[in-house]
Task: inverse folding
């Protein structure tokens, strides 16, 4: 049985003091042994603070991005997967729609980033999803298939056992709009089916998260769908009480 995962993407929010307060509140709100896997993704400057604050807790720490290059080199401003592993990051978000749209990351680059994470022992959370224009044009499944296939055709299937996929309809990120549980389930089922075309074993075990204005009010209904294995939470993860309620919904 697939375990649920709730991941909080803090994006470019916070200060050192605000992050410390959030981490303290999160530790107070979450049970010592939550019934779901939980991870938070602070801005890179605060990853070390989060690792110290959450030491001994069940909450894992991840990075919001990772370099597509190897461990060492002249890549100013970048952080490698090996460096993330070295400091204790368990996860890395790869291919978030904001990285694709604002920084021009292609599906080919995203696929290489997935490989770098796996080589370093970091779990990649691969983001896929369509824009509002693509949805209106009836291209949702085509877009998701292309983004998935880029990874499945680049990385050996046998290396992907730890892969996590996050379906994030771009039109629902930070907009207050949310795909209905049925809409989200349809795309999640398609993702699992698409992966099954490469490996039925991998498809059965891969965790597929929903990301797109997830909040406490809609989490339980979303997470009750057969192929939704948790959430990649944005704005709501900056509120310890709200995020904890989402985690409880995943239990």
Result:
């Amino acid at each position: 049985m697939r375990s649920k995962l709730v991941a909080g993407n803090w994006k470019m929010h916070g200060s050192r003091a605000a992050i410390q307060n959030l981490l303290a509140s999160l530790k107070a709100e979450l049970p010592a042994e939550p019934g779901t896997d939980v991870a938070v993704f602070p801005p890179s400057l605060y990853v070390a603070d989060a690792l110290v604050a959450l030491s001994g807790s069940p909450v894992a720490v991840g990075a919001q991005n990772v370099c597509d290059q190897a461990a060492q080199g002249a890549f100013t401003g970048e952080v490698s997967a090996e460096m993330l592993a070295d400091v204790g990051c368990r996860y890395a978000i790869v291919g978030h729609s904001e990285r694709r749209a604002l920084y021009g990351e292609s599906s080919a680059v995203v696929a290489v980033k997935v490989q770098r994470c796996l080589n370093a022992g970091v779990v990649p959370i691969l983001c896929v999803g369509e824009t509002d224009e693509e949805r209106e044009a009836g291209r949702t499944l085509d877009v998701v298939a292309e983004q998935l296939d880029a990874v499945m055709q680049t990385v050996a299937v046998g290396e992907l056992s730890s892969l996590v996929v996050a379906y994030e309809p771009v039109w629902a990120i930070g907009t207050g709009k949310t795909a209905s549980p049925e809409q989200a389930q349809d795309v999640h089922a398609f993702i699992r089916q698409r992966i099954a075309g490469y490996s039925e074993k991998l498809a059965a075990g891969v965790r597929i998260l929903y990301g797109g204005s997830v909040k406490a009010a809609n989490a339980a209904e979303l997470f009750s769908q057969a192929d939704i294995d948790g959430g990649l939470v944005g704005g709501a993860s900056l509120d310890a009480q709200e995020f904890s309620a989402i985690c409880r919904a995943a239990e």
Q: What stands out?
A: Residues 5-250 form a domain with the TIM Barrel fold (CATH 3.20.20.70). Strands lie at 5-9, 37-41, 59-63, 91-94, 123-128, 164-167, 207-210, 230-233. The longest helix spans residues 181-196. The longest strand covers residues 123-128.
